[in-house]
Specification:
The protein has eight helices and six strands; from the N terminus they run αβαβααβαβαβαβα. By secondary structure, the protein is of the alpha/beta class. Strands 3-2-1-4-5-6 form a six-stranded parallel β-sheet. Bound molecules: magnesium ion and zinc ion.
């Protein structure tokens, strides 16, 4: 069990620092499709407030990277090009709000392949951090709605000393293992906004 952290502390620790917010996609940004995959843009549905949340969070975080398992590629249900197309659409819609995501890190592999990038393995996060040496790895934050995202945060912490986990969506198996938990990405963004106001940051 991890320590519950005050969101004000999480914000205060990062004032003036260069760090990255790693955000899960399905179930956090867009509606998760049960027993299937978001195979194309037609399947993509923003969760309420998620788009505004990304705008607010991007104002706070020097870097914001989406980290997502897309095993449907490995299963042959869609191509990596389909996934990239979805991410291009996300960027295009966010650009209307003046927001840019810094990267989309995707694991397309089958679980049975036991790759080093499928969450909860930390490869997607660690590879991005390796490519961005000016970013302080130990200030990383992982946001997700699955137990594997909380496990990802722990695996990143093992590699780089520390990593804060934010649980989204209220699953008991997530809330109990997150440093802080919120019902939605929007609720997290609002809490960050209040903390930043209090701190004058
Ligand atoms: Mg998810
Ligand atoms: Zn992989």
């Amino acid at each position: 069990m991890l320590t519950q952290l005050d969101i004000r502390q999480i914000v205060a620790d990062r004032v003036g620092r260069e760090w990255c917010l790693f955000v899960d996609r399905d179930g956090v940004i867009n509606r998760q499709i049960v027993d299937d995959y978001v195979r194309g843009w037609a399947d993509f549905e923003w969760l309420p407030g998620a788009r505004d949340a990304l705008r607010k969070l991007r104002e706070w975080a020097p870097h914001l990277v989406v980290v997502t398992n897309q095993q449907g590629v490995g299963k042959g249900l869609m191509s990596i090009g389909d996934v990239t197309g979805i991410h291009d659409h996300i960027q295009a819609e966010l650009a209307q709000d003046g927001v840019a995501v810094n990267g989309f890190q995707v694991c397309p592999h089958l679980e049975s392949r036991h790759c080093s990038c499928r969450k909860p393995q930390p490869g997607l996060v660690l590879d991005w951090l390796t490519d961005h040496p000016s970013v302080d790895p130990s200030l990383s934050i992982v946001v997700g709605d699955s137990p594997s995202d909380m496990e990802l945060a722990q695996n990143v912490a093992t590699a780089v000393d520390r990593c804060v986990s934010i649980g989204i969506g209220g699953r008991a198996s997530v809330v109990g293992f997150a440093n802080a938990a919120f019902n939605s990405l929007w609720d997290f963004a609002v809490a960050v906004g209040h903390a930043r106001e209090e701190l004058g940051s």
